[in-house]
Structures are given as structure tokens and as C-alpha cells.
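Discussion board: Methods & Data

I've been asked by a reviewer to show the raw model output for two of the constructs in my manuscript, not just the figures. I'm not sure how much to include, so I'm pasting the format here to get opinions. Each protein appears as its amino acid sequence followed by a line of C-alpha cells. Is this the kind of thing reviewers expect to see in a supplement, or should I convert it first? Here is construct A:
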Amino acid sequence: MSPSTVSLYIRQPERVSEKTGKKIQTAIDGLGYVHNKIASQFTGGRSCNMAVVVPSLANIFFSHVIQRIESTVSERGFQLSIASHDHSLDKEEEQIRAILQWSPAVIAIAGADHKPSTLKMLHNSGVPVVQMWQVNGGDFAAQVGNNHEHIGYSAARYLLDTGCAQLAYFTTRFDDDIRARVRYEGFCRALEEEGKRALLVDIPRSENIWQASRETLVKTLVKERGIDGIFCTSDAIATALLMEAQDRGISIPGQLSVLGYGDFPSSAWLSPISLSSVNLNADVIATRTADMMLKMTQDASYQGEIVDVGFEIMPRGSTRLPF
């Protein structure tokens, strides 16, 4: 059997007869051989590696989208590298530099805000980039995600329309979470139109967001007794607030309305009160991002496009219905 036939089977097994392919695979299994794809790149082959860089893997929304992207690109023969920078733009720069050293076919990054040195590095690399999760702003032609300022505005508008008078914005690590800050800007804009001001509540950083959120709600309601509507930057925070409110006999949504963000799988099924939340069309973000990344590997002239996937407020038991 010629070396060229073995090489062809490793690269494109569908082009080798079934009988010959079985013989080659048996030899590969017996030898424990692992194909060196980096070496293949040096001989003119394409990179089979893609990369995604996100702020967190702990957030179920991010992990769900990454899993969907991985499933799609792996079916086309690509390996997906994943990096998480914990909302640190300095760490993001280090990770992207390390990833670019392996010449990925495409890289997807979260959000529109990055260090100038990171942007320069990406532009100079020539590697196609897809911006995920945010479409309002950014340096890249390829963008898939949501308008976060509009989300914040719509969340405040929804709570006001359901009869809430004094609104609070519950978040954590506010200084680090860029998209949470953008949503807060929209939240404040809606309130300013009504002559009102938002209360910003930045939950102390904690490994146990449930405990920290519950403790913060109690302290907030003691100091700000008029608060009757809360928009949270994640369903995890919102769920913790529901738990605390119920334990303390606070009527939901009679005395306090709680709106989450992300529409986690559990939110619609919480009992005795289900959680209203903002659905971000995560599956659409994953599908459109993966499709765009794959198209970039096939067509060098394709620069991508801006895809606003939209969002939907899901009214459930934790908020009243709009008037």
C-alpha cells in the first residue's frame, strides 16, 4: 500500500475504498498512530482548528452556545479550542496571542470591547474573526448577537408597564462585566424618560452567588423600602432573589417583581413561582456563529455580516402582566 494512499485516507477517508480504508485503520489502531495536523498545515493543508474566547464558562448561557458551536464545526472536521478570561481584557489579550500562534482557521470572541493591542493583533494576523453576543458596536464586520442597550431599555420599560414604580438593577462584578454595563445604560434611559432613577445594586463577588444574592436583597430592601421591581443580570441571581423573597413572606409579584436575564432551562419550571426572563435566542446565536465561521474557511472573500438575533421577554409568575 502506497504512502500516498495512507495519506489520502487520513486526510479524506471518504475518497478511499472501504476495503483499503479498513486495512489502513487497523494498522493505525495497532500502532497507536496520531495524525500531526500541525505538520499538515506546513505542507499546504488548511488549519483544522477554530477557537472561541469567552468571559466565563460558569455561565450556562455561554457554555450552551459553545457546546452547540462545537457540535456543528466538529461535524465538518474542525477542532474547537476554548478559552475563558473571567472578564479580564488583559487575560483575553494573552489568550488570543497564544491562540494565534497556532494559526486557527477562524476565531470567535465575545463582545465589542477589547484592548487596542488585542484588536491590532487580530487585524494583523489575517485570521477571520466573528464577534459574538453583541452587535451594537465593535471593530469587526462579522457580528452575531444582541443589542444590549436595547435589552436594558426594554426590561425597564416592561417593569414600568406592569405597574412597578421604583426599579433596581441587580448585578455582580459590574466594573468587569462590560455588557451588563451597556444594559444598565439602556435601563437608565428608560427610567429617565419617566423622570425616575435606577438603583444600581452590585452584589459582592462571591463563589456562592446564591448566598450573596439573597443576603444583598435583604440589605437592599431594608435601605430602599420602595423598591418594587428588579432586573437581574442573570437568572441565577434572579432565582436566588425569588428564594429569599418567598422565605421572608414577600409577595411575588404583588409586592416585588423580579425579571431575570438569559432564560435558563430551569426558569420556566421553578415552583411555586416561575421566573420571568429575557430570552436571548441562544440557539440562533450558536447556529449563525458556527455557520459564519465555517463559511469563512470556505470563501476567503467572505467578511461576514451583522446578525441581530433579537430577544424576547418571557412573562411568567415573577412579574405582573403589562397593563
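Construct B, same format:
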Amino acid sequence: MSSYPIIASITQDIMISAAVDGKVERVILMAGNIMSLDEIVKQLRKKNKQIYVHVEMVGGIGRDASVIEYLAEMFDIDGIVTTKSNMVVAAKQVGIKSIQRVFAIDSAAVETAIRMIQHCEPDEVELMPGLMPRIIREFKQRIGQPLIAGGLIRNQEEIDTAFRSGASYVSIGNPDFWNDFVTVSMPKQPSSQK
């Protein structure tokens, strides 16, 4: 796990400088467009940030597998975030990481998401909304990938609850949680018994 397990969710261009200057090591980029992507990536790379581009949210990015190869070659991103299984497969084919974003809106959606994750095997899974401790625990028990809790998380208590429930990371769009002034309260790791 990262030494700072908060992932910056950049949803607006004005948030980029906060992510660049913040303590976060990873960003999910949902702002900008294909024309501004090169400059955004350069800014984030100067501070050694890991960059995951949400392919359905950044403007001007196509919806087919060839766009993943283009992003990997032209921008040297670390990975993608997507809701689409075919994009996860495309990321594997070009050698970048994938985060599959799933929405737990009801029991049927949870079961469909689990099957999809088991079938396409993304590197990580982002569960939204991230405010459901029981669902986080159940997901974590059923998947092998690191689990990111994201969406609707607004304060320290909600971050702590997500971690206590089994989340490996929390993605959050509030820049106050991206800097050196916030201490994330991590759960105690169980000691190994021999």
C-alpha cells in the first residue's frame, strides 16, 4: 500500500495544481481534454505522481480499445480508470494498469460487478459510492484486487470508516485531503502469528 493511501480525484482543471503540490502519490484524472492532456501529465510527472486517466471522463477520448494504446504511447500514463471491461482488456494488452470503476446501486449491480471483475481481472477496483461499510467489506472478501472506495466521501470520519471496512485506498475530490496537513487514520494491521 502507498505511504499516503489517498488518491486525488481531479474533476476540474483548477484542482490540478493542488494535486501537483499535495502529498498524494496517485491521481485519477477526470478533467481536461485530449488537447490539454499532455500539459497536465507533464505537470503531474514533475512531481512523480502516478497518473490514471478516466477514459470516459476526459474530453475527446474515444471509446474503443485503440485509444488505450494511444494514451499509453503518447502520454506515458500509468493506467486508466473505466467502467468498461473491454477497456480493462485493452490496458492489459498495452501493458498499463487498469482500475475498474463499479457502482453498487443495488444487489443485482453488486453481483454483476463481481462477475465482471472476476472475468476481466483489473489491477484494482474502485467501488462507488464509498460510504457503504458493509458493501466495502463484502467486496473486499470476494475480490482479490486492491479496493478503492470513492464517491461522496467528504470528511475524515468517512475516510476512516472506509479504511476500517477494508478499503486499500480512498479516492476523494477534496484537495484538503491531498496535502501535508491531514493525517489519515489507518486501521491497525493484524499482527502475524507464528
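Answer (T.O., handling editor elsewhere):
This is acceptable in a supplement if you add a one-line summary per construct. For B, something like: The CA atoms of residues 154 and 174 lie 7 Å apart.
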